[in-house]
Amino acid sequence: MSYLKRWRKIRSEAAKIALECTSEDDSHDNLDNPNECDENGGENLAAEENSTSQESDELGDTDSDFGYKDYVSTDSEQGVESAKEDEVTFQEKLASWATRSKCGRSQINELLGILKDEGLEVPKDSRTLLKTPRQIQIEDRCGGQYAYFGIECSVVKILDRNIKYLESSNSVDLLVNIDGIPLFKSSNSQLWPIICRFSDFEPFIVAIFCGEHKPNSVDDYLQDFLAEYKELQRKPITLNGQEIHVCIKAFVCDAPARAFLKCIKGHTGYDCCERCTIKGEYKNKRVVLLGDYPLRTDRDFSNGLYVNHHVGVSLLLNVGIRCVTGFPLDYMHLVCLGVVRRLLCFLRKGPPECRLSHRKVGEISTLLVSLSGKLPSEFARQPRPLTDLDRWKATELRQFLLYTGPVVLKKVLHKDVYEHFLCLTVAVSILLDTCETKRAAYMDYAKQLLDYFVEKSKHIYTPLFFGV
Asked: Which stretches in the chain have pLDDT values below 50?
């Protein structure tokens, strides 16, 4: 988008916000019926339109711009207090728009300059508009720098902007995500934020850690977060006379982060499975997890009965967090980045029992490339050859499993191997169905397909397919 188009778009958005802030009936009548304006108002509006049209001609735009001053100007009958209230409302809506639109600081400052030129009393800098804190309390902790922002303040801020949420619910069920984010390719600097979200609102940061490695103490890292959560359980948030109960519904993390938070063994060792009590067997330089074993329970985990599974005692247990069922295993990591990637790797470079010839791998790549550019815009990425498999994203692996894979593998794989792949495709399609009724009706069938897929995998791809 060119500079002028972006400038006009921002100017138009600001005009719409200004219109919404004009609460006086007379002002609305004048805007809807320009002929009813008084003589002075008509002259001012005409002068403003002439001025704006000249500016529009200079910019090469045939559409007329907005006269902001007329939209937010108040009648002489209004008191000073009403004008101040309107001004505060306008700034709040402008700040909300800037946050929703994810505008940069320079863009917001440019817009504020335009509004000041039009006669509006707005801040000069975006930091004043958005009420950016002047200082953030940063402390040395866990081998790096740590800052805590809080749960309650962010929840209250979101509910203040979405007050209708409280009409249907008096509770907030938090989804918590914790993961490491590398900052630069040339250094080991990384961020470890604690991010929360509830309902369909935007996620918010509760705490953040920055260092050359992950936090060296999970207890110190979670201390402030769990202390505030425990206090919120004892004393709920009060907003507009209504009590709001805060509850952590689940921790959504990848395998290394789950092991870090729960103080358990990593996902490549003995007794590492988070769902059952299997120990594992060492084969060909990897631990193979194969067989049916008793499932782990929240009660036994909290009582410390899994001695070989634990490496410490997690603080999460002190606030009632369920460390088995409260940590869901997402299909992006398990299926897309896990099973599908491993299946393709075994077909391409796996053991001789399942490895495809170079010619067949080339055929699959050719068929995938032939589909590139022909998929609709709903697909985030176009197919790439198997030579780029190491760089495939989760969305590409999902696309292969559900859409392109059944097409390109049909004439390449042996019938038994192809039907085995389709079992996974159909099962995952059922589980991903957005229709809850249909999903529930075929749930048992999906389980049968997955059981068959697992049982057959050790024969097609060898037991190494279950290695970690």
From this structure: 23-87
